[in-house]
């Protein structure tokens, strides 16, 4: 609480100093026409360069085993998004500063607030003096300036705008302190045991997380498909075209199937990245932290993603409807009940294994009434090379009551005179 109070006090002093120098509007007029993530250390020329970086043009074949991957940085992990299965890891639980990768959690809370009806994309939000005073990467908002949630999401996702983060934190929780408390609550709910957030944007390097935890919150964010409308932007504009935005995440431009997600850079954290991509219906997330150069982080992420796409596939089992024949019900008010199954969850497999997957249906020959709706009456087991790959329950589609004495006699009488 003391650190946050001091931060607000300093923000107030800054706002007063700017006002004395001609007002916040005069300061805002100095905003560059092309806005980039200044924390990345890149110049405008580097950020907008047409040159294909060396890491993007590498053509070495991906290894077939994770142990052969050579990835830089202090910590890294590769997961498949639908299952959360870990495909590669290197010091995944080491607690490290993650800089602006922190904004993955900020974006997640914004998307959840929209889903809950707390926000709309077109809702206007007004910039406070505190939000306008944020340092680091920003879109040079001035106090009283109004932007929509849609515009602020774009600013956060594309140029890592700290002032936009503060505006959204205040809108959702009333203050940055309240928002940070919710960030830590949500981290606990997701099982992010290596994480502590101390601000909404990653400026404070007392905060920390791990590659494993970043992958967890990235996976949760990617459950909101609309976020990719922002995280895949390479260039866009704000303020009716007066401010051009350029994404620091070069994978968006140079990696096929890239869907995001967030870069982060400070002197303490080094170059960090949570990179997501999708090909052939399979989504991956590669996290790399503590790199010494920006090429090292993008190159490492590419190696992990290449490995995942080269060696794995998502397999969705199909149900043979003929195997779901009605099951006889003994002493029931109905002679049979129809089996049913829920949608089968997709499975992550090694490429080429789908032909070796064997299904085994086990279904009850008959059932004694009463039968209850969604009563388990069978099972589908998928095996691969003699090992169980997955099991799915088969349910009764509806309830069938037991025959009463009068009903039993009536049925017997009908049978005798038929």
Give the secondary structure arrangement, pairings included.
Blueprint: H1 2-20, H2 24-28, E1 34-35, H3 44-47, H4 54-57, E2 75-80, E3 86-90, H5 103-115, E4 124-126, H6 129-132, E5 146-148, H7 149-159, H8 162-173, H9 176-189, H10 211-221, H11 228-231, E6 235-238, E7 243-246, H12 251-254, E8 258-266, E9 270-279, E10 282-291, H13 294-311, E11 312-315, E12 327-330, E13 336-337, E14 339-340, E15 347-350, E16 357-363, E17 366-368, E18 376-384, E19 387-396, H14 405-417
Parallel strand pairs: 1-7, 12-17
Antiparallel strand pairs: 2-3, 2-10, 4-5, 6-7, 8-9, 9-10, 11-15, 12-13, 14-19, 16-18, 18-19
Helix pairs in contact: 5-8, 5-10, 7-8, 8-9
Strand line-up across the major sheet: 3-2-10-9-8
Strand content: 15-25%
* CATH-derived architecture of the largest domain: 3-Layer(aba) Sandwich
Average pLDDT for all residues: 89
Record field, number of beta strands? 19
- The CATH topology of the largest domain is given as Beta-lactamase
> What portion of residues is helical?
25-40%
Looking at how many chains there are and whether they match, the oligomeric state comes to: single chain
> Helical region count?
14
CATH superfamily of the largest domain: DD-peptidase/beta-lactamase superfamily
The tally of domains stands at 2
Q: Any idea what the shape is? A: globular
CATH class of the largest domain: Alpha Beta
- Tell me about the largest β-sheet: 5 strands, antiparallel
**Low-pLDDT stretches:** 1-30
First-to-last CA distance: 85 Å
Structural class: alpha+beta
